[in-house]
Amino acid sequence: MKTYKDFITEAFKRTGKKIEFVRLHHGTSPESAEKIKKSGFSGGREGEVHTSTNPKTARGFGARYSDKPKNITMLVPKKSIKNEPEKGAKAVRTKGQRHTDQFGRKHVSVAMDPEYASRKIIKTDGRIQKPQIAKRYRSIK
Fold it and tell me: In the chain, N or C terminus with fewer CB closer than 10 Å?
C-alpha cells in the first residue's frame, strides 16, 4: 500500500501541479471534541462548521463553551475553499475574523459543510491520524 507522501508525489508527477493544503482549526469543548472524534461534525445551528486558519482564534471560540477548549484540525485543499458562496461549495471564506498575526501571516475564517469537514479531520488533541486515500487510488502502480 502506498503512503500518503507517495500518493502526493505521484499526483504531482501526473499533473505537474503541487496540491496546496490549508490547515483549519475548530475550537470546541472537550466533550464535543470526543463526540466529533467518534461520529463527525453535526453542523450546529446554521448547519455549518466554523473554522479558522489561526489555532488561537479557534481556541478562543472554544473558550465560550469550556474552560479548557480543544482544537480539532482539518487539512483542506486550498483550491476547494471558495471566496463566495456558490452551489456545491464545501468550504467558503467568511467575512469575519480576518487578521494578520505577529509573523505577517494572514488568517481567515472558513465555514464548511459538516460532512466534508468530518472527512478532513487530521488531528484531535495532538494525535495525528493517517489521511484517508480513496479506494480507487490505492491500487495505482
Answer: C
